[in-house]
Amino acid sequence: MNNTQEPMPVNDPYDRGRTYRPDRDGTGANRAALIIHTIADIAAAFLALWIVLYLLDANRANVFVGFVHDVADFLAGWSQDIFTMETEGLRVLLNYGLPAVIYLLIGHGLAARLRRV
């Protein structure tokens, strides 16, 4: 009779045969990519929220609306008055929508690049 115990095989559905690599275990580059991705999404969300609040004619005296407007102005400060058309709603849409799209493209692009490292 043989009393030596062999370790049981691990049945981990998330392992998928990968070997352990310290740079691919959810730390380092992957966490940085997640942070960049999340910051870009939050910035774009504030800009989109301001566009919606403006187009729905939200009360600007409201504290929440004022906060969203201040954050959106900060995030889109570099792109103000790129488009100067007479239709106010379209002007706001383009002047705040352009930075939202750029933040998403740059943030998601950087995150994807970091994940490939």
Q: Class by helix and strand content?
A: mainly alpha
Number of helices: 3
Structurally, the number of domains stands at 1
The helix/strand series, from N terminus to C terminus, equals HHH
Radius of gyration: 23 Å
The share of residues in helices is 55-70%
What summary fits the major beta sheet?
none
> Which residue ranges are poorly predicted, with pLDDT under 50 across at least 5 consecutive positions?
none
Distance between the termini: 51 Å
- Coarse shape: elongated
Number of strands: 0
Mean pLDDT: 85
Strand content: under 5%
Structure description:
With 117 residues, this protein is an all-alpha fold. The chain has one domain. The chain is 59% helix and 0% strand. It contains 3 helices and no strands. α1 (29-55) packs across α2 (63-75) and α1 (29-55) packs antiparallel against α3. The longest helix has 29 residues, at 88-116. The radius of gyration is 23 Å and the shape is elongated. 15% of the residues are buried. The mean pLDDT is 85.
Short description:
It contains 3 helices and no strands.
Write the layout of secondary structure elements.
Layout: H1 29-55, H2 63-75, H3 88-116
Task: Give the tags.
mainly alpha; 117 residues; elongated
